[in-house]
Amino acid sequence: MFNRIFLVFFILPLLAETSCQSQSNMPTFFRDINLFTLKGKDEILYNDLKYPYIQIDSINEQKKKITYFYNKDLRREDLYTQNELGWVKLISFNDGLVDNLRYEIVSGNGIVLSLGYVKNPASGADPALGIEGTDPVLQSCSILRGSTLNHYVFSMNANIHLPITNKVEQIPLKRATRVRTEKFNVSKGVLTIEAEQLSRKKDQLELESIQKQCFYVGNLPFSWCYTHYPNLENVDCE
């Protein structure tokens, strides 16, 4: 009798814990997302789903998958892993010459930081590419603050061996050979992107070009404009 009672009191909490875990791992759906925290905004029920929408899957406490459903044919999946830097997304590929590593870091400090590295897959140095040994070399850096994106490009000959970081002050931005600043603005259903590009000539950065692009976005929030604007319809700027 005692064993039966003990078994009941043991199983009931276990079932409750399992139920909570299964519910917490259920996907949730939103119309918008905070790019700087990766938390959904304006939650919607499954039965009310209409394109576009965002699905967030909490795989476990350290992993989450965010899927942007723009329409039935266009979607984008981002897988993030949480560590001491924050939520980190890694994209790696080989372009036939070197390994490319792209880290996006969301640390909750009001910015989205992206770091791009190249790595020689073969052992030893490759002087022709300016890569010393197999250590990853910093090639690019992007910083999103509010609705402004700053993108920096570094010479591979600079051999910047920077450890992965979420602190902008640790990045040698002054060594960039090109700097591109994009300002996003959404008004009356149109996304306007004003871009200014600087290139290093001798010892200083000089203005190379100023561009302005416009896209029709309707009532899409900024998160969609930022993540999907290359796939949007171009329109004439006023």
TrEMBL record:
Keywords: Signal
Top-rank taxon, per record: Bacteria
Range of residues in the leader sequence: 1-16
Keyword set includes Signal: yes
Name of this protein: Lipoprotein
Protein source organism: Ohtaekwangia koreensis
